[in-house]
Amino acid sequence: MYIVACALALVVLISPAADALDNGLALTPTMGWLHWERFLCNTDCDSDPDNCISERLYMQMADVMAKEGWREAGYEYVCIDDCWPSHQRDARGRLQADPKRFPGGIKKLADYVHSKGLKLGIYADVGKSTCAGYPGSLGYYETDAQTFADWDVDLLKFDGCNMDWTLVGEGYVNMSKALNKTGRSILYSCEWPLYEWHFKKPNYTAIREACNHWRNFDDVFDSWSSVKSILDWTAFHQDMIVPAAGPGGWNDPDMLVIGNFGLSHAQQESQMALWAIMAAPLLVSNDLRDICPRSKELLQNRRIIDISQDALGRQGYRTAKVDTFEVWERPLSKNRLAIAVINMLELGGSRRFFIQAIPGWKICEPQCNVTQILPQYQEMGVQTPRSKIHLSVNPSGTALLTITPIRDFTGSHKVQWEDTSVRRKHTIL
Ligand code: GLA
Known about the structure:
Layout: E1 31-34, H1 36-39, H2 55-67, H3 70-73, E2 77-79, H4 105-115, E3 119-125, H5 141-150, E4 155-159, H6 168-182, E5 187-190, H7 192-196, H8 204-210, E6 213-215, H9 224-236, H10 238-241, E7 250-252, H11 265-277, E8 282-284, H12 293-299, H13 302-308, E9 317-322, E10 325-331, E11 337-343, E12 351-356, E13 367-374, E14 378-383, E15 388-393, E16 398-406, H14 417-420, E17 425-428
Parallel strand pairs: 1-2, 1-8, 2-3, 3-4, 4-5, 5-6, 6-7
Antiparallel strand pairs: 9-10, 10-11, 11-16, 12-15, 12-17, 13-14, 13-16
């Protein structure tokens, strides 16, 4: 028997997030589909009509989203990424969609997506050109914001390539103002901090005031090493970035790659669980027309989505590394708590992990209800501070739990997660 007890790192008590961009959007993390990771900059519609960046692709995704439970599960935005425009602006200086691949134009596409009860996202860049070399918005912020508003677009992903880094912040703020000036509600997805981190510490107060979410770190790839690197980056910077998240503004660890080629099912469960713990936008990049039923079920798992969309709006964070395990926690509304335990050992079979309350861990005082959501749903019943919660976690998989305090009749046990999340004993067998 192998026992490890660990004192958890003290996580700074999180003060309420600073003022968010006041556009009434992203009060919970954005949910939708985004083309980039799966479809990249495939513009070859002659030889690959089903997978090229064209109006057909977004219409087909919208069809599937409306028909196959995605919209009902909360996935709302159908988002275009890079490579949609023509290489030239029109005579009036406006961006225009590539006429061959978008013969109906963006306005018609927005109408179509809206007719399915969904919203349309588009992509542009703060600098001279986009990352893939299409026209950037530098010098055209107001024109482009107005063009997107005229087309009835609902979300803008604004990239940061090909821009002097000292002007990146100013550019993002100016586009935020330009969007606001249009009077249309356009959710504003930024990559501001990602383009500053190489040079200086980003100002998250300013970022939160201008953007509805913001990318901090590298693009996600279809691999476990990529997902792991994002988790590591996030945990390493959590004292700085977690306090910035809250209703109206979120840290964006990039797309969900669930349903593609690179992740095992356990790894897909880990990505889904941890993106929910991190209060991350759930923007899926896969082919919804052809997805394995298990991945679909995972992405539509109502209990995980409830954690993601929890009304308290606090981002979770890593609270312990114990042997090969990582423990992440997210405070939820009604004094509940979500706990994710990842087994980082990519070897062997499932490993056992015990969570045992020690005196001072009040969430289970006098009693709490424990529900396991991953790897399978299971009511673990009423527990007390003396209970040992037994988990079994697959290699690179995650056990995801929620803990709900049960108060006594007088209500005198006011459970505050802040009082309780920092002292715990984790035991591994
Ligand atoms: C950058 C972004 C990606 C994607 C590509 C498009 O790399 O971080 O998410 O938008 O550009 O070129």
